[in-house]
Amino acid sequence: MKEQIEDLRGALAFLREREGQLIETDTEADPVAEIAGVYRHVGAGGTVIRPTKEGPAMLFRNVKGHPDAKVAIGLLASRKRVGMLLGCEPERLGFLLKDSVKNPIPPIVIPNEKARCQEVVYLAREEGFDIRKLLPAPTNTPEDAGPYITLGMCYASDPETGESDVTIHRMCLQSKDEISIFLQPGVRHIDYFRQKAEVAGKALPISISIGVDPAIEIASCFEPPTTPLGFDELQIAGAIRKKPVELVRCLTIQEKAIANAEYVIEGEILPGVRVREDQNSNTGKAMPEFPGYCGPANKSLPVIKVKAVTTRKNPVMQTCIGPSEEHVSMAGIPTEASILGMVEKAMPGKLLNVYCASSGGGKYIAVMQFKKSVPSDEGRQRQAALLAFSAFAELKHVFLVDEDVDCFDMKDVMWAMTTRFQADIDMIPIPGVQCHPLDPSNGPEYSGHIRARGVACKAIFDCTVPFEQKERFKRAAFMEVDTKKWTEFAEPKGLC
C-alpha cells in the first residue's frame, strides 16, 4: 500500500483520510460500560445484541478519569476496513495471511532510546503507582468482573528454549499492580511456557503491548497447526508489511515488547498464585465473549505481578467489545488462512475461498466455496470440510457451497441451504469431539449426551449440487452490463 502503516497512530491517521471510517468525539465518556454502550450502536456488529451494526471506528478523546489518554475502538470491526488497513481486497484477506505464513519475516530488536513505547516510564515500586489509574481500560457491561485489557499483545518466551510467542488473552485489572490472565488450557503457547516455569518454581516474564499496528493484532490470532510451538507470529505481521516488526528490551524484566506500542505493561506470571476473576465485583461474570454471552468468572486464574508501565506521550488505549465484528476479523481471517493452506495442500485448486462468518464470532462457522470440476470431485468437498476441522479444532459448523454462491453473503449461503440441501442426506454430524467451551450449548447441562464441557458435536452442511446434476441447478442468467456506466445507481453507498 502507498501509505505504510507502522503503528496505531498511523492506522488512525490513515482512516481519517477515508470517508466514513473514523468518528472522533470530545464528549466525555466513562470507561465503565459507557464507551462500549456507545460503540454498540455506532459500529460493533458481530454477535452483539441487537440493535447494533457495522460502522466506523471511533476515537474517544475525553475519557473520564484519564485526562491525558484517549481510547480507540473498532479499528478492525469491519472486513472492508481491515482490507484497507492491510492493503488487500477484503475477499482476499485469507490468501494474504496464508502467503504471509509461508514467507515470514522475523522481528528485530532496536535500541531502547529509539523505542517510542518507553517515552514515559512508571515503576511499580514508586509511591502512588496504580495501573488502574494509568490505563483507561474499559468494561463492556456494568456486570463485568472489572476493567479488562482486551487487545493486549502478550509476549513471552519458553524458559528452556528461548522461543517466543505473541497472543491475545482476557486480562482483568485486579489491584494496583496485579492482573489476572485467562489462558485456555492446551490451546495457547504462553500457557505452555507458564507451566514450564511454574514446575521449576519460577515466574514467567511477560510483556503486554497495547495499541499497535493492526497487522500485529491479526497475526497474533493464528493457532496450531498453522503456527506450531516455537513459531513467533510477529513474523507473519512482518510479512504482511514486508518489513520486520520492531521490538525493544523491557526495562524491568528479561523480555521484549513491541517498540511502537502506546502502552507496555512489564510483569511476571507468578508461580502457584491464583485469584478469583470477579473478586472485586462478585457478579459471577467475567466479560462478554465472542459467542455473544457473558463468560463466567473463573474461580482460579494465574496472576501477573506488574513491574512497570511504559507509554508514549499522550497514549491511546485500544480496546474492543468482546462479541463485536472486531473479534470476527481477528479470529476469523487467520482461521480462513489456515483452512485455505491445509486444503490447498491436499487438493490444489478446489477450494476457491473461505469465510468465517460473523454469526460464529469468527471461530464457530466456516463457509467453504468449493469447485467440482470432474465427476471424481464428488465427495471431496466433504473431505475438505474434515480438513477444516483439523486446521481449526474450535470450528463447530462448516457450510459447503458451490462456486456460484457468494460465501461472504450469508443470505446467499442460506439460499443454497434452502434449495441445495436435504437434512437427511446432506448433514453430517460428528459427535463426541472437542469443540469450544464458551459455547453454552456445549455442556452436559444442555444435553445428557455431552460427557464433558466442550466435548460436543460438529456438523457439515453440504449445500453443494451433486456433480451430475449441475445443469439442473443453474442460476438465472442476467444481461452483463457496463457497471461503470451505471456506477451512480449500482454501487452501495456508505457501507463499512
- The coarse silhouette is globular
- What is the straight-line distance between the termini? 19 Å
Beta-strand content bin: 15-25%
Number of helices: 13
Describe the sheet with the most strands.
9 strands, antiparallel
Radius of gyration: 23 Å
Number of strands: 23
Low-confidence stretches: none
Helix content: 10-25%
Helix-strand makeup class: alpha+beta
Q: What is the average per-residue confidence, as pLDDT, rounded to a whole number?
A: 94
What does this 3D model show about the protein?
The chain has 496 residues and is of the alpha+beta class. Helices cover 24% and strands 24% of the residues. It has 13 helices and 23 strands. The strands form 5 sheets. Strands 5, 6, 7, 8, 9, 10, 11, 14 and 17 form a 9-stranded antiparallel β-sheet that branches. The protein is globular, with a radius of gyration of 23 Å. The two termini are 19 Å apart.
Keywords, separated by commas or semicolons:
five-stranded mixed beta sheet; nine-stranded antiparallel beta sheet; 496 residues; alpha+beta; globular
Overview in brief:
The chain has 496 residues and is α+β, with helices and mostly antiparallel strands.
Reconstruct the topology from this structure:
Elements (H helix, E strand, L loop, with lengths): L7 H9 L5 E4 L8 H9 L14 E4 L9 E4 L5 H8 L6 H10 L5 E2 L10 E4 L7 H4 L13 E2 L2 E6 L6 E5 L1 E4 L4 E5 L6 H11 L4 E7 L3 H6 L14 H8 L4 E4 L6 E3 L4 E13 L9 E4 L5 E3 L4 E11 L4 E4 L5 H22 L4 E5 L9 E6 L9 H12 L5 E5 L8 H10 L3 H4 E8 L20 E8 L24 H4 L6
Parallel strand pairs: 1-2, 3-18, 4-12, 20-21, 21-23
Antiparallel strand pairs: 2-3, 5-17, 6-9, 7-8, 7-11, 9-10, 10-17, 11-14, 12-13, 14-17, 15-16, 19-20, 22-23
Helix pairs in contact: 4-8, 4-9, 9-10
